[in-house]
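Self-study notes.
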Amino acid sequence: MCFQTRFSFSLEASSESTILDSHGDKFYIIIRGKVEVQIDEFHKNKLITNTVQELGVGSSFGELALITQLPRNATIVCREECHFAVLTKEHYNLILGKIY
């Protein structure tokens, strides 16, 4: 189940609770919960999904895609119920863009 407002949303934990924003036009801050960062790699002609990091409250993701304007290079999977604050690219640039 997903609950979304203009600047935040929640996801329940499940193997299908992923952030589906491949265009990379949003920046996410974890307000509640834990997520895994997963990257797909080919190994001996076989696609393998590796969990490369776990992020929790206060962590953020999505800035690389905003800065480089390239598609996201990882998948975010909720491992427990999560709530996120979300900045659009426009708001990210206004608030944080000058720092990076």
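Second protein, same conventions, sequence then structure:
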Amino acid sequence: MDHELFDPGQFSADLAAARNPTRAFKKALQHADDVLQARFEGQRDIHKLIHDRAWLTDHQLFGPPAFLFHDSKGTEVTQARIQGEVKRATFLEHLQRLKAAN
């Protein structure tokens, strides 16, 4: 994970403090955009960054962490997706629900 691009601790703090969770997501996206812009202007090799950004965009993710679940055919089960940090107990409950559903 590129912590300069996405700081999960800062995102969690912003999300907890926000009245409207959309603001935390927008702030995280703006920060990522600012970092990418600074890297581009700094003449760094951005091929990997472009590839990573495209992958996130293709999968409709704002950034890590994200848990994507796939069926036996390799197709993502989008309703099972988890974006952002979750507590261990919450994650285990989610896995139990997935297991019970299948």
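Instructor comment on the second fold: The first helix runs from residue 8 to 17.
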